[in-house]
Design a protein that fits this description.
With 202 residues, the chain is mostly helical. It contains 7 helices and no strands. Keywords: Disulfide bond, Glycoprotein, Growth factor, Secreted, Signal.
């Protein structure tokens, strides 16, 4: 079946696999669990709120610095080395809940730290950025706690991808870096949201 072009554009460079490929995932013992379903639906709402806050910050960056379109900034991006937290474990045909949850948890921690660069960039919006950091930390903690409650193995992936934030050589590079941190975070959240929603529908 064809994947809508809009969906591909939304996911950008993230690895793509058809979500129906996950239907055979060994999650029967989890998907029928009432507490697990409650966790999924609660955190779907939480993820939706975080996505909204990221979108609000993206509008601020657009209005403040006239940085609005990703395709116009790709050449600058190559010089910055802004990492994209991986989520390929949420796509694979060999989908395992613990692997996907572990990557969502770790990615949220990465973006919590990355938002420090956005905080420096937008001091007049400190409240919104700090709320976003707190929400990312809380959602990460929720997922960690739920994994422990369900007896899922905690998987820690090598940190060869996301690392320390780059040192920006100019104010403009800092602004573009903030733009891509938010763009990457929004893509990450879209994929994490789809994974949680898929599990909730099994």
């Amino acid at each position: 079946a064809a994947v809508p072009a809009g969906t591909l554009a939304l996911l950008g460079t993230l690895l793509w696999a058809p979500w129906w490929a996950l239907d055979g995932a060994p999650l029967g013992e989890l998907s029928g669990d009432q507490d697990f379903q409650l966790f999924l639906h609660k955190n779907l709402e939480f993820a939706r709120k975080i996505k909204g806050d990221v979108a609000a910050l993206q509008r601020v960056v657009c209005d403040t610095f006239q940085l609005c379109k990703e395709e116009e900034l790709l050449l600058v991006r190559q010089d910055l080395g802004i990492p994209q937290a991986p989520l390929e474990q949420c796509h694979r045909r060999t989908f395992q809940a613990e692997s996907c949850f572990s990557q969502i948890r770790d990615g949220l921690r990465t973006y919590h730290d990355s938002l420090a660069a956005v905080l420096e960039l937008l001091p007049e919006h400190t409240g919104l950025v700090e709320t976003l950091q707190l929400d990312a930390a809380n959602l990460s903690s929720n997922i960690q706690q739920q994994m422990e409650d369900l007896g899922l193995a905690t998987v820690t992936y090598p940190t060869e991808g996301p690392g320390p934030l780059p040192v920006f050589s100019s104010r403009f590079h800092h602004q573009v870096g903030g733009f891509f941190i938010l763009a990457n975070f929004q893509r990450f959240l879209e994929t994490a949201y789809r994974a949680l929603r898929h599990l909730a529908c099994l």
